[in-house]
Amino acid sequence: MKKEELVAQMAEAAGITKVQAGKALAAMTDGVVDALKGEEGKISLIGFGTFLKVHRKARQGVNPATGAKIDIKESNAVRFRPGKQLKTQVG
């Protein structure tokens, strides 16, 4: 599903315009990003899941094309753990 399709589905389900649904989706995604940037780096949506910011330490990797060793810098990544209700509904 693409963003436009999600916005259209949200608009139909909520009985609002696509513009309003697009603004609501943008506000939600901005809120998730802001929460992950915060000190705790976590947002839980009960029944849906939890987004977590995790820190990856610097490490050595291997370039698969050449086999040469490369240094990978430390970074932050985002993980998602689905909630029980989402797991049940999906599969």
List keywords for this structure.
HU Protein, Chain A, alpha+beta, 3-stranded antiparallel sheet, 3 helices, single chain, 5 strands, 91 residues, 43% helix, elongated
Structural class: alpha+beta
Number of discrete domains: 2
Tally of DSSP β-strands: 5
Q: Could you report the average pLDDT, rounded to the nearest whole number?
A: 95
Strand residue percentage: 25-35%
Instruction: Assign the CATH architecture of the largest domain.
Output: Irregular
Multimerization status:
single chain
Shape: elongated
CATH topology type of the largest domain: HU Protein, Chain A
Largest sheet: 3 strands, antiparallel
Short description:
43% of the residues lie in helices and 31% in strands. By secondary structure, the protein is of the alpha+beta class.
Would you mind describing this structure in some detail?
The chain has 91 residues and is of the alpha+beta class. The chain folds into two domains: 1-37; 42-91, HU Protein, Chain A (Irregular), CATH 4.10.520.10. Helices cover 43% and strands 31% of the residues. It is built from three helices and five strands. It has helices at 3-14, 18-37, 84-90; strands spanning 42-45, 49-56, 59-62, 69-72, 75-82. The chain has a three-stranded antiparallel β-sheet with strand order 1-2-5. β3 (59-62) and β4 form a beta hairpin. α1 packs across α2 (18-37). The longest helix is centred in the first third of the chain and has 20 residues, at 18-37. It is elongated. The two termini are 18 Å apart. The model has no long low-confidence stretch (mean pLDDT 95).
